[in-house]
Task: inverse folding
């Protein structure tokens, strides 16, 4: 279902009206084209590409070149879907100037509609610098995978009062810095509700409970392609099982001489090269 691309202003109106929205994470033209035909409003081209596509243990190996490449593929596949380009580790941490330069590159070369970066109050100056240069920024707080070593692993954040208070402060800080939305990852439901209600910009949760303004799931997760299943992931279909079954059927038919049949062959008869009888 091709649709008109959602705007930042519309997302804010969604929050004001209490209208929910969804986004998903994918990295290539073909899957993006499937999202384009759906009701889903937004795609994140995440630095999780390093895990899902490259097989790395973390998001840290994702590079600017790789992100530009995958963002370009997605924007071609989903021209009417709002695309968020993830800023990889090292592309914005050093300075405001680096952050602006690399955000410009994702927008110009990749063709995304905004950029996303991880961090709260500590990244407020980066967010402001990018926004001041005309580039929309989505902030990402809670579980921030680029800081996984400092966080001690992939763990729910905000389970104690001090961390919860910090995340509330982070949400307000990134809002004041000019972020148009917040990606909130892996926090308890009550904290997700409090953060969503504390700011006037949309908060989209991934593992942050039902009270967030929108919900995000990775395409590979919700389709049941990934073997690993986090607590917050719902498999809406088990494509992995279907795909393995299809490959096994292909193998069995080939070994039994049942594929390819006439239906799947070019049947023009060349004198001297008659194929003989087959189905």
Result:
């Amino acid at each position: 279902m091709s649709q008109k691309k959602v705007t930042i202003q519309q997302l804010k109106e969604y929050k004001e009206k209490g209208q929910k929205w969804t986004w998903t994470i994918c990295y290539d033209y073909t899957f993006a084209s499937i999202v384009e035909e759906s009701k889903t409003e937004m795609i994140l081209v995440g630095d999780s590409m390093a895990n899902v596509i490259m097989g790395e243990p973390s998001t840290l190996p994702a590079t600017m070149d790789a992100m530009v490449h995958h963002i370009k593929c997605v924007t071609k596949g989903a021209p009417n879907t709002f695309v968020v380009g993830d800023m990889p580790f090292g592309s914005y941490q050093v300075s405001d100037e680096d952050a602006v330069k690399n955000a410009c590159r994702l927008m110009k070369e990749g063709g995304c509609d905004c950029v996303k970066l991880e961090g709260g109050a500590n990244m407020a100056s980066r967010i402001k610098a990018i926004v001041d240069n005309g580039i929309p920024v989505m902030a990402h707080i809670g579980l921030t995978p680029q800081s996984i070593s400092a966080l001690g692993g992939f763990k729910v954040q905000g389970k104690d009062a001090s961390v919860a208070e910090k995340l509330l402060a982070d949400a307000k800080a990134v809002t004041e810095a000019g972020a148009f939305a917040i990606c909130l990852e892996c926090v308890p439901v009550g904290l997700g509700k409090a953060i969503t209600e504390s700011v006037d910009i949309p908060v989209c949760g991934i593992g942050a409970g039902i009270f967030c303004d929108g919900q995000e799931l990775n395409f590979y997760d919700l389709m049941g392609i990934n073997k690993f299943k986090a607590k917050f992931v719902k498999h809406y279909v088990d494509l992995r099982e279907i795909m393995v079954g299809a490959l096994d059927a292909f193998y069995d038919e080939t070994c039994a001489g049942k594929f390819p049949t006439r239906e799947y062959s070019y049947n023009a008869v060349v004198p001297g090269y008659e194929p003989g009888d087959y189905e």
Q: What stands out?
A: The mean pLDDT is 96. The longest helix spans residues 161-177. The beta strands are 21-25, 42-45, 82-86, 114-118, 137-142, 181-185, 203-206, 214-218.
